[in-house]
Automatic annotation (TrEMBL), chain A:
The lineage of its organism: Bacteria, Pseudomonadati, Pseudomonadota, Alphaproteobacteria, Acetobacterales. This is Branched-chain amino acid ABC transporter permease. CDD domains: TM_PBP1_LivH_like (cd06582). Signal peptide: none annotated. It comes from Roseicella frigidaeris. PANTHER family: AMINO ACID ABC TRANSPORTER PERMEASE PROTEIN (PTHR11795:SF445), BRANCHED-CHAIN AMINO ACID TRANSPORT SYSTEM PERMEASE PROTEIN LIVH (PTHR11795).
TrEMBL record, chain B:
This is Branched-chain amino acid ABC transporter substrate-binding protein. It comes from the Bacteria. It holds the Pfam family Peripla_BP_6. Belongs to the leucine-binding protein family.
């Protein structure tokens, strides 16, 4: 195969796999930030905390990191509901959710990072399953399972969430609460409860993303900083409240980053990827799958 | 959106304060007074954030030094007390912490935080107060400032561009066949760019044509496209200048894509760290990279084994690097420099201490040290080591000779080069 074509195809495939990780990290935010209008800047930090928990539990019990991520997701759901209770009680209830809420989640992010350092130390932590060292070769295309397995789990989790949001009453209520909480109240549905459930789900997705991250790379308490800009950009590019848009934007981000790295050098990757964000917003201010208000 | 009122702003400030107030808790409380009028040595250190892994292990090494000194009766007949604050790996925090150390805590001496990015912002405060300053792993910090009371505990020397990559390129002469092409990949930070500049500048001298020369941002997550682009150029020699956790990502991608080269490595920071060694295991075999210490017979300087025994006994409980094969002996040696200079001068006099440090050499656990006019090591000692005989991630072998074999400099050489990288060990 022509070397340039090989670079192109491998760049696209590795970009899609990287996009799977980004989708895992950004989908939870699409729920909290996109649907609930809660600027949870601590989401990537909670993802790293989940990754640390995956390493500890997986190492102690000899379990696969992705399996641990799924098993611990209910606990992170509960953590999310508690976090929302605090946020609602101190800020949202008083109508102070804008600046004060942002300060709250900034603080949570800081506490999570420092807490991880104090509890576990600042060292890198890892848990490599055997398949993380296996690469499938499909002709000239390399598919490392280190990237493929987390991407598949992420997509499965996002698909399950999407079905839940589209098919269940609670899921439809989550979509409704994003549009008009008062109308929901008139239908005898407590919007605070619905928001609590939705926020819990977003943090449960952070658990899945944490497990995916552990398989892809070693993590340390400060690892979340790499993802903050990307996940918000993907969420906005996808159309805020749209899960399919979030996934598509994540794939686009990954492919653009990796193709740029392949042909023009990795220095240009973030600039070109964020340039695409500007382009999308210029022509579709509501994002790829968003609706105009 | 709610209107921002003064009360609202107050609540926001309270919310921020309540949640970020944990920051000081991360810093160790200043040690309690240990008797009458101790000599107080202050520094900021990265105990949280991206540099915390090295910051915490450096602090443990310094604490071991203080305990050793106090067990011997202290310095100038006075006990030593270390005062340190967590700079959170944030350069913006450093000037205020050094101002507090010098003006409020009234420490007698100051030492630096870990590494260039944190040392540089401390320099204006230290220079304004005329403090004698022994820094840890700074590179080229004093190049333009030319502060005559600055001293650096780092092996890179005055001229990083002229010396840093020499050892790596000298290894090309040990290869069985001549090499022609070189690829360079460096992270966008000061030290790595200097390292890349060094190898770029010397490539022609070694008959190497540069076929790939790129930088990458520290936020890079996936290195496979970059490594594939390097692979497409088929270089004989591959030079990476990277930081953790990028080094890990790069070597994982190299392994997944089966990139092979006659000589692969360079200025990678990461493979020196125990956690990285445990994770990468045999992927490290035949990697040739920059280092500062290896437990080879040629580096058994007096006191280093005893230090490492103490360090390794405490590292697991302190949740820091369990081996202490990297900057930890240098953090201890940094304090030895201060102790020996104080003993010679006989009093705490910043000017006299600086003159003494310029004029005299030091015997430390990392070997004899002498400083240049700029305060760097007068004789650079960039080690280039090769990882050999690694079958798994077990760390015990890193405590013994034969795993990190020294190839350069010749005076410390302890083994022979194995080539290529990517071949079965």
């Amino acid at each position: 195969m022509d070397p340039t074509l090989s670079l192109l195809l491998n760049g696209i495939v590795s970009g899609l796999l990287l996009g799977g990780l980004y989708a895992a990290a950004a989908s939870g935010l699409a729920v909290s930030f996109g649907m609930l209008d809660i600027v949870n800047i601590a989401h990537p930090a909670l993802m790293v905390a989940a990754g640390m928990a995956v390493v500890l539990v997986g190492t102690a019990l000899g379990l696969d990191p992705l399996l641990v991520a799924v098993l611990q997701a209910p606990l992170f759901y509960l953590l999310g509901t508690l976090l929302y209770r605090a946020y609602h009680h101190f800020f949202e209830r008083r109508g102070d959710e804008a600046l004060q809420g942002l300060a709250f989640f900034f603080g949570v992010m800081f506490i999570v990072e420092v807490g991880l350092v104090l509890l576990l130390g600042p060292e890198q932590r890892f848990l490599d399953p055997d398949y993380a060292f296996v690469t499938w070769r499909l002709g000239e295309i390399d598919v490392p399972l280190r990237m493929l397995a987390p991407a598949l789990l992420a997509l499965a989790a996002i698909a399950a969430l999407w079905v839940f949001l589209r098919r269940s009453f609670t899921g439809l209520a989550v979509a409704a609460v994003a549009q008009d909480p008062e109308a929901l109240r008139l239908m005898a549905v407590d919007p605070v409860r619905i928001k609590r459930i939705a926020f819990g789900l977003s943090i449960a997705l952070a658990s899945i993303a944490g497990g995916a991250l552990v398989v892809v790379q070693p993590i340390e308490p400060g690892s979340h900083q790499v993802f903050i800009g990307r996940v918000f950009a993907i969420c906005i590019m996808g159309g805020m409240a749209s899960l399919p848009g979030c996934v598509l934007a994540a794939f686009l981000f990954g492919v653009v980053e990796n193709l740029t790295a392949s042909f023009y050098g990795p220095s240009w990757s973030p600039a070109v990827a964020f340039g695409w964000l500007l382009l999308v917003l210029a022509f579709r201010p509501q994002g790829l799958f968003g609706r105009l208000a | 959106m709610s209107e921002l009122t003064r009360r609202g702003l107050g609540r926001a400030a309270l919310a921020g304060a309540l949640t970020t107030a944990v920051a000081p808790w991360a810093a160790p409380w200043p040690a309690l007074a240990q008797g009458v009028n101790p000599i107080r040595i202050g520094c900021s250190m990265s105990l949280s954030g991206g540099l915390a892994a090295n910051g915490r292990s450096a602090q443990l090494a310094q604490r071991i030094w203080a305990e050793d000194v106090n067990a011997r009766g202290g310095l100038l007949g006075r006990p030593v007390q270390l005062v340190s604050y967590d700079d959170q790996s944030n350069p913006a925090n450093v000037p205020a912490l050094f101002t507090k150390l010098i003006d409020v805590d009234k420490v007698d001496l100051v030492t630096s935080p870990y590494a260039t990015a944190m040392i540089a912002p401390s320099m204006p405060v230290v220079m304004q107060r005329g403090m004698c300053y022994v820094a840890l792993f700074g590179a080229g910090v004093n190049e333009r400032l030319k502060y005559d009371r600055y001293f650096s505990m780092n092996v890179t020397g005055d001229d990083i561009k002229g010396h840093y990559a020499r050892g790596f390129l000298e290894c090309t002469k040990m290869l069985p066949n001549p090499v022609r092409s070189l690829s360079i990949l460096a992270v966008d930070n000061d030290f790595a760019q200097r390292a890349a500049e060094s190898v770029r500048g010397m490539a022609r001298e070694y008959g190497l044509r540069i076929v790939y020369d790129r930088s990458y941002p520290p936020s890079t997550v996936d290195f496979t496209p970059t490594i594939r682009a390097i692979q497409a150029q088929r270089p004989d020699v591959v030079f990476f200048a990277s930081y953790p956790p990028d080094s890990n990502g790069i070597l994982r991608a190299v392994s997944e894509l089966k990139l092979s080269a006659a000589l692969l490595g360079g200025g990678m920071v990461g493979p020196q760290i125990a956690a990285v060694q445990a994770q990468l295991g045999p992927i490290l075999n035949n990697l040739v990279t920059w280092d500062v210490y290896s437990p080879e017979p040629t580096m058994q300087f007096p006191g280093v084994v005893e230090f490492q025994e103490k360090y390794r006994a405490r590292a697991p409980a302190e949740q820091t690097d369990v081996l202490g094969n990297y900057l930890q002996p240098y953090a201890y040696a940094q304090m030895q420099v201060i102790a020996q200079s104080l003993a010679r001068v006989g009093r705490i006099d910043q000017e006299a201490l600086a003159k003494d440090m310029h004029a005299n050499g030091f015997e430390t656990i990392v070997g004899p040290v002498r400083f240049s006019a700029l305060g760097e090591w007068a004789e650079p000692r960039n080690l280039f080591v090769q990882f050999q005989n690694i079958a798994d991630g077990d760390l015990e072998k890193y405590k013994k000779p034969g795993t990190k074999v020294i190839l350069y400099p010749p005076a410390l050489k302890s083994g022979t080069l194995r080539s290529p990288y990517g071949a079965p060990a």
